[in-house]
TrEMBL record, chain A:
Domain Uroporphyrinogen decarboxylase (URO-D): 53-363
The name this protein goes by in its record: Uroporphyrinogen decarboxylase
GO molecular function: uroporphyrinogen decarboxylase activity
Signal peptide annotation: none
TrEMBL record, chain B:
Source species, domain of life: Archaea
Pfam short name (any one): DUF7479
Protein name as annotated: DUF7479 domain-containing protein
InterPro entries noted in UniProt: DUF7479
Lineage: Archaea, Methanobacteriati, Methanobacteriota, Stenosarchaea group, Methanomicrobia
DUF7479 domain ranges (all copies): 93-150
Amino acid sequence: MPAKDYAPIDQNWLEEAGSLWTTPWVDKPSDRVIVDPIILSHAASLFRKNAGYFYQNPDEAIRMVCHACELYDVTPVGHYLYADYWGQDYGAEIKVQTNSPPGITKRPIKTAEDVDNFEVLDVDELTKGPTLTTHYKALDTCKEEFPHMFAPITQLGGTMEVATNWAAIEDVFMWMITEPELVDKLCVKAGDHMVNACKATSERYGANVMITGSVIASGDLMDTEQIKRFGFQPVSRAVRKVLNSGAGPGIYYHLCGNHTDDFEMWKNAPMSPFTIVQIGYDGQNIFPTSKLVEHFGDRCTCFGTVDTKLIDRGTPAQVYEQAKEQVTAGKDSPRGFILGTACECPTNAPPVNVHALVKAAKDHGKYEKF
Amino acid sequence: MDIKITEELDNTLKDNGFKKEEIQELIANAEASGTKLKARDGNVTIAKGGSDNLTVYAVYSPDELLDVYAHKMNILGLTGGELNEIDYDDASEWACAKCGEIALERNVDMTYMGVTRPGPGLVCPKCDEFYVSDGVAKTLKTAEAILEEKRA
Ligand SMILES: [Zn+2]
């Protein structure tokens, strides 16, 4: 749908949502906690389009996301990103799928020798590459058509996510046992790549918000030492390099999956004045916001979560209950709080469930600290 | 210490509102007190000075001023309050000239316009002195601009 087919965004809503969104970052008083359900291809489902359509049409995708933000009354930011970033730039092949993000079918790294010979692309090469060309098409559209909803986001993932888009996950996991030094090398290269991608965004837009963290490197798939060695350490080095090269200031640590045994190390991950930490699960359960705030509340902005499985398959009452508990525990966190989902809002989640999440923030997320 | 300032750098100083005399004084103070960072590899020094509202850094070699940068965010101390063990290599390229310890890359709390948040600092673990790198100062400049806009 071209831009002209959308109803205009309500400017009063935008101003109000913008004010709620500002609070967790700069402590400017407002009424209540804002919700960020991490809307990506879910927006397409509201327009009766599928995920494949969303990922193939970045300009339309961003329009759909921005309008979904208004519909749900959530964080007014035009997100655009998808799962398999950075493979294609290095020769991976991607298969477009109807109902899920594009998947990598052929990866550039197959052998140990490939790891040694692998060269990270520089800023210029990345800027012209398929990932950032697509990504910037979405961001440029946002900047042009929804300037107040624009954020210069670079979707990085952590070093293990980048590494497993370059080499097959089963190979990387095998090397972790048989040749861990090879995975170290791979993660260093992934880190250098992340730095260059951030520089590209920062050069283009004057600032950069990096989404990084640890998704594959979670307690579901790796032990704590492995997470430290192949996730936390190379990610921290890369973030530090990004900040040392002036390509910040936003850092979003997205710790997806179970982080019971490793979450504490992230307390010392490099932070900037605009840092947010989100942790998905504590074992099988949603990571309690009370625990998140206890450990991170005096450090950075906290992102409390509601289980995406509930958003996808639960009842509105279940979503509301969990959201109420999380927002009550987090709303007055000293350095700001946002309520959201443990990961991306599922494509076909019932809209009433997203609404229930927002409703809980409206009913129970009123600030008391101001 | 007689330090050379090239015309080009002098112009940059003027453009950014720094006075040559201030910078010379800042360096003289650092040389006298020993409160400065020295590159672990090479002969470059970082001195700092200024006030709560503006921390100014001068980077210099024995005979020439190399760079000057500043930030408005005021460093309060270590994020989390104490220097606990961390799980990655936090040794920076700098060492404290006073005590010889390697400066550590650690988060420090910074405050500006009533907002306190963390930022990436260079910390002498012994002397409790805090610095930031020139690149981080660039990052902080963006952060300060956002705070100025949003807190206005
Ligand atoms: Zn010292």
